[in-house]
Write a structure and sequence with these properties.
Shape: globular
Number of helices: 1
Radius of gyration: 20 Å
Helix content: under 10%
Largest sheet: 9 strands, antiparallel
Strand content: over 45%
Number of strands: 9
Length: 155
């Protein structure tokens, strides 16, 4: 599956204020058994934005690329319950903001409930020999529907 998106905004005088171009390609590579498979995931983005403090009319360009393999394990209902990802990331911003960086990435996502995931992400920066770890909790808020009943938002 391949997706692409564009999002831009302009100033009152018609000049480009900021924008982002994103693309993502995902493909199944290998079906290990009825419950698990390996996928290839590739993402790239270009973000353009103006320096709000500077007088320059030039847009900052921020490039980001990610790629890797993703192991997905499903339960008997074919619902993903575990994901393990290995890959790398390249990030490049204007030199005055940040030096380009390349990292090796790994992650585990565990589904706790229908809409609650606990991901652990580890990034290794080979240029600085640093390891970064991130532990977070991600949840869809669809469980609120049952609590709120027929309350309609933004109607």
């Amino acid at each position: 599956m391949w997706t692409a998106s564009l999002n831009f905004s302009t100033l009152d005088n018609g000049l480009l204020q900021d924008g982002i171009v994103k693309t993502q390609a995902t493909a199944g590579l290998l079906k290990l058994n009825h419950f698990s498979n390996i996928e290839f995931d590739l993402q790239a983005s270009l973000t353009l934005n103006r320096d709000s403090l500077g007088a320059s009319q030039q847009l900052n360009q921020i490039w980001k690329g990610e790629g890797g393999l993703n192991y997905v394990h499903r339960n008997s209902n074919q619902v993903p319950v575990l994901e393990i990802k290995a890959g790398s990331t390249y990030y490049s911003a204007p030199k005055q903001l940040q030096m380009p960086e390349f990292t090796f990435d790994g992650g585990i996502r565990l589904r706790v409930t229908k809409s609650l995931w606990v991901p652990l992400t580890v990034k290794y920066d080979p240029q600085r020999a640093n390891v970064f770890g991130y532990l977070s909790v991600k949840s869809n808020f669809d469980w609120l529907t049952g609590l709120l009943g027929d309350v309609k938002f933004l109607k």
